[in-house]
Design a protein that fits this description.
Helix content is 30%, strand content 22%. The chain is an alpha/beta fold and 384 residues long. The protein has two domains: 6-175 and 299-379, Zn peptidases (Aminopeptidase), CATH 3.40.630; 179-293, 2-Layer Sandwich (Alpha-Beta Plaits). The strands form four sheets. It has a six-stranded mixed β-sheet with strand order 1-2-6-3-7-15. The chain has a four-stranded antiparallel β-sheet with strand order 10-11-9-12, with helices on one face. A three-stranded antiparallel β-sheet has the order 4-5-16, with no helix packed on it. Helix 3 crosses helix 9. The longest helix has 22 residues, at 201-222. Bound molecules: zinc ion. Zinc ion (ZN) binds at residues 76, 108-109, 140, 165.
Length: 384
Amino acid sequence: MPLPPLKEQFAALIAAPSVSCTQPALDQSNRAVIELLALWLGDLGLRCETQEVAPGKFNLLASLGSGPGGLVLAGHSDTVPYDAALWDSDPLRLSEQGDRWVGLGVCDMKGFFPLIIEALRPLLGQRFRQPLLILATCDEESSMAGARALAAAGRPLGRAAVIGEPTGLKPIRLHKGVMMERIEILGQSGHSSDPGLGHSALEAMHDVLDALRRLRAHWQKEFHNPQFGVPQPTLNLGCIHGGDNPNRICGQCALEFDLRPLPGMDPEQLRAAIRAKLAPIAAQHQVRIDFAPLFPAVPPFEQPAHSELVRLAERLSGHAAGAVAFGTEAPYLQQLGCETIVLGPGDIACAHQPGEYLELARIQPTVELLRELIAHYCLRGPDS
Ligand SMILES: [Zn+2]
């Protein structure tokens, strides 16, 4: 089967549902997307390897050329869940509306893969001195399990990696980490008329909240990075549930919070600092305090400003590299030895929303930029 034209590739990828979600009822396999990409890339002569990360969840690594070095063009094959009733068009059917293509995943970010193919096609007759790797991961929108599995396997990938998340074609070299954590306090209920009959989880939680707010103030004084719109680390007390009736001593109380560390802050150290505050509160109130992440942390990410890839992307895009507020798979690719940036054609403002779109005007500049990157890392010699 010959490779379909660009728009048909977009349409086929959008039509292959690949929602990933922490709620099992909404979670889907990404098999259909991976199979399409493997078919097309295999057709172009790339060597395709798929890895089943979890049942029905696959990573794809396609390569052209071999040896060390080279370029990784990476993206995730999954999308967030959608509410079809809020869309004006079918989210799984690519539609052209004015100067945009609309559909679930056009911007975030299945649409990146056809643009890579478009960039690559005219270069296929040339000798690849260093490899081009095209990586499609699973479960970025839920657990980042695909990128984590890759990082855990530890196989070096390439000299440079570009992740095509929506950045409006501006290079991104920093983002904060994402941690979502839960503290659960187990006390003992009893009649409210006599505090000696129980151990209040709610009273203990009051001290926990106080301790978290003090830690936050301390971290915000210690860490500051003006590259970010919100230059400090943040800690949001997201939700709390506890107790039932006013005349019962509260036996159980749980808090969930979100922590966004700056580059340079280590999630494990932050957790250790929190744990150190919880132990004396548990002892004082005679309650049990369990503290655990809701999912593994996405580490903060920073690629130094002077890196070859950052400089090159700044020159090719015409924009200085900056920071974004969302987390990506970049720290995992960095762990595998790649200089890494995030740079893609979509706009983050329309991602995760009904009517997600890609502006047609972004297509050609993206294709040209990707072609330059491939030429730089794969076609020219290491010293040219
Ligand atoms: Zn994304």
